[in-house]
Amino acid sequence: MKTIEKEAIPTTEECAGSLRNILDALYVLNGKWKIALILSLVQSPKRFNEIRKEITKISPKVLAKELKDLELNDFVKRTVYLTTPVTIIYEATDYSLTLKSVIRELSVWGEQHREKVKQSMRK
What we know:
By secondary structure, this protein is an alpha+beta fold. Helix content is 57%, strand content 15%. The strands form 2 sheets. Strands 1-2 form a two-stranded antiparallel ribbon. It has a two-stranded antiparallel sheet with strand order 3-4. β3 and β4 (87-92) form a beta hairpin.
């Protein structure tokens, strides 16, 4: 690995591996709602309509699809209670917690980006 000003430059193989890893992550977490849904459910388990009230701009159809995708990838657990009417509770799995540092870094970057945009608009 080469270095430029004390920073390592990845090799072609390392870049290809990183790219594959990033594409895999983005494939699973694609769309603008998945991370928001995980954050919502990490706070507490919720019913479908509770999620809709918290994430107001998501349509019911998209919410259902995103929850199903997250369940298939083991980020969300869906529990059905045979009450009248049937009660369905969604909750974040332990696997969702593996995204904690990723979500924190995205939050920090998002705040920095918002400030950069504000500064650009002032010029």
